[in-house]
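User: I've been trying to design a sequence by hand for this structure and keep getting stuck. Would you show me what you'd pick, starting by listing the structure so we're on the same page?

Assistant: Good idea, let's start from the same input. This is the structure you sent:
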């Protein structure tokens, strides 16, 4: 990106305006958006007025190249919607010029539910809302201890261990398989995030193993950058053979315990869902409540 600090500032000004809090720590943004599958030169555009950046867009297209992403930073200005339209159209042109884009490539853009004007603009450009991301939060102070099946062993994920990183990725790869319209991260991006994101804290994430030492579930926990004294539950994954046995709930409560041990009073997570109810039931069962909703709008890349 031309200037990671500038992009982070624009994005944080946008979220401060909407939600009263930042979205990105600068180094966190660098580790997340500038992955091994991201071209650091040709994947972003800035809109300047009198030499000052007032809005920006970042594009991302990674293997298997079926889904591209637009990250729009459009803080309030008198011509905000005009700026947003210009940048989204520019971002689409950038993605279309990518040699790896295909006729099947879909492009996503995530717009906070509070920004109805921007959602209307994006819809006018041919995008349709297909799923939602909820940010939930819960207190850690009075959560009960996790209830683990006695046949499983629980240990901390070692961020310096290639074996642990690979084992955890295999769990999430099964939990979020290719082709599903939900969250997914490819292997190289995942490894890059764990080894470069400064919010990835040692001894905070969890692996669940069988008696034979096979990793069957994992919970990836980071430090949250939007609020002080808050942990971020990044991902929860459970392999098919042990699903519906309360492992997901136990992993959430285990994360609460780990956060509490660090003096953190709250836990946050983001989850994709197609509606408001069933997919949130697990998180509500541990005392988490929805704070914010972001709508993901999608369009075929070559039909706009």
């Amino acid at each position: 990106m031309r200037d990671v600090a500038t992009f982070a500032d624009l994005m944080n000004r946008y979220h401060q305006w909407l939600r009263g809090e930042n979205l990105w720590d600068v180094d966190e943004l660098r580790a997340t958006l500038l992955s091994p599958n991201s071209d650091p030169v040709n994947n972003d555009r800035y809109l300047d007025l009198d030499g000052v950046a007032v809005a920006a867009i970042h594009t991302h297209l990674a293997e298997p190249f079926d889904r591209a992403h637009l990250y729009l930073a459009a803080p309030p200005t008198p011509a905000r919607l005009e700026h947003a339209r210009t940048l989204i159209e520019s971002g689409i042109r950038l993605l279309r010029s990518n040699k790896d884009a295909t006729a099947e490539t879909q492009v996503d853009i995530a717009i906070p539910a509070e920004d109805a004007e921007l959602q209307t603009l994006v819809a006018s450009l041919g995008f349709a809302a297909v799923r939602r991301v909820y940010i939930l939060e819960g207190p850690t102070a009075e959560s009960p201890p996790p209830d683990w099946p006695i046949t499983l062993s629980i240990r901390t994920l070692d961020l310096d261990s290639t074996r642990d990183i690979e084992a955890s990725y295999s769990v999430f790869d099964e939990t979020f398989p290719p082709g599903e319209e939900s969250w997914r991260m490819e292997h190289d991006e995942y490894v890059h995030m764990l080894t470069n994101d400064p919010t990835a804290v040692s001894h905070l994430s969890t692996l669940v193993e069988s008696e034979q030492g096979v990793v069957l579930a994992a919970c990836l926990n980071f430090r949250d950058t939007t609020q002080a004294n808050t942990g971020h539950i990044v991902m929860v994954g459970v392999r098919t053979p042990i699903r519906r046995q309360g492992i997901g709930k136990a992993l959430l409560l285990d994360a609460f315990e780990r956060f509490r041990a660090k003096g953190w009073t709250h836990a946050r997570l983001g989850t994709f869902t197609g509606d408001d109810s069933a997919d949130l039931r697990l998180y509500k069962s541990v005392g988490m409540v929805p704070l914010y909703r972001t709508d993901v709008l999608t369009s075929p890349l070559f039909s706009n």
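That's my pick for every position. To get oriented when you compare it with your attempt: The first strand starts at residue 44 and ends at 49. The mean pLDDT is 90.
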